[in-house]
Design brief:
321 residues; alpha+beta; Immunoglobulin-like; 2 domains; five-stranded mixed β-sheet; 7 helices; 17 strands; elongated; disordered N terminus
């Protein structure tokens, strides 16, 4: 997982390693005999979702064999993958990878695939390249990115990876404090002659978003340190209510919502609501805030809370006695 922080985490890398020159918190690695289809699925279904939060970035790198079948469906071929193109035993479909990526909470995901037919993964980027200035990075870091850099289109690529060599060479020689996926693709493709490296998006990518890498030991630029652009919560309700909200898992940090709206940093939140004269919440829901957008949940007609009803029942009983 990439981060602007300077922590090293598991899978520590020497700074003589090109990858070690960049800020990563953790490494999850599958090599050789461990790179089975079951372990790949477990990585995406369990290990990554458990480790990744809403503001994290995830870089996925695959180097190996790929295949495109008669239906034009692409696959990664794990170490235990069969050779029968019809049985497709223990193959890992590109469509399944896209679904796993779509379920991750991470803000930014970049898949770098150095394999045959890896271009089947992506929707090719066709828009003009943006100017990589401070305002670009500020926006790129606040939006959701789902991007792919492939060693080739829907074609076979050489086992001796020219793409891999160019990628490592760029990471080793780069002196910029911050680079994004577009810049990586632009530099790598210039040195590759045997295939056509492609850059594109996966479902869920927001226009203007991008995956960003930070060089270790260099202070992140102001754009990277800037707070995410806030989003707004606007509550629709047919009747009076009192509401509070807090980040999911931090109910102790509840803040009151004045009127029916409040600005929040991007993330997942818990909304609690009650009737104005009640003393306990009778409604709760989770909602997501995205940068620069409004979220507008609708409250149902609120009922009295169970605690309020119990107190009123006890008072009625006292009056009758």
């Amino acid at each position: 997982m990439a981060s602007p922080r300077q922590s090293r985490g598991r899978g520590e890398r020497s700074e003589t390693d090109p990858v070690g020159k960049y800020c990563f918190d953790d490494f999850f690695e599958l090599y050789d005999a461990d790179a089975t289809v079951a372990n790949i699925r477990k990585l995406f279904a369990e290990r990554l979702p458990a480790a990744v939060g809403l503001h994290d970035s995830v870089l996925v790198f695959f180097a190996g064999h790929g295949f495109l079948d008669a239906s034009k469906s692409g696959f990664w071929i794990p170490v235990d993958g069969g050779v029968d193109k019809y049985a497709q035993k223990a193959w890992f479909p590109n469509a399944q990878l896209r679904n796993y990526i779509g379920l991750l909470k991470a803000r930014s995901v970049l898949v770098i695939a150095d394999a045959c037919f890896s271009g089947d993964l992506l929707d090719v980027q066709r828009e003009a390249a943006p100017e990589l200035d401070s305002s670009y990075f500020k926006r790129a870091l606040t939006l959701t990115s789902r991007q792919v850099l492939s060693s080739g289109a829907s074609e076979a690529v050489p086992d001796e990876s020219e793409f891999g060599r160019q990628l490592l060479a760029f990471l080793d020689r780069n002196t910029d404090e911050v680079v994004d996926a577009l810049a990586i693709h632009d530099r790598v493709r210039r040195g590759v002659t045997k295939t056509l490296p492609l850059f594109g998006n996966l479902p869920g990518n927001e226009q203007g978003a991008s995956f960003v890498l930070f060089r270790r030991g260099a202070e992140a630029p102001a754009a990277a340190r800037a707070a995410p652009i806030e989003g707004k919560l606007v509550i629709n309700s047919a009747g009076p209510f009192t509401a509070r909200a807090a980040p999911v898992g931090r109910e102790g940090d509840l803040v009151p919502i004045e009127g029916n709206s409040l600005d929040f940093q991007p993330g997942s939140y818990l909304l609690l609501a009650r009737l104005p004269d009640d003393f306990d919440d009778s409604f709760r829901m989770e909602f997501a805030i995205r940068s620069g957008e409004s979220t507008t949940p609708s409250l149902p007609k609120l009922a009295r809370s169970a605690a309020f009803k119990a107190r009123e029942l006890a008072r009625d009983k006292e009056r009758l006695e």
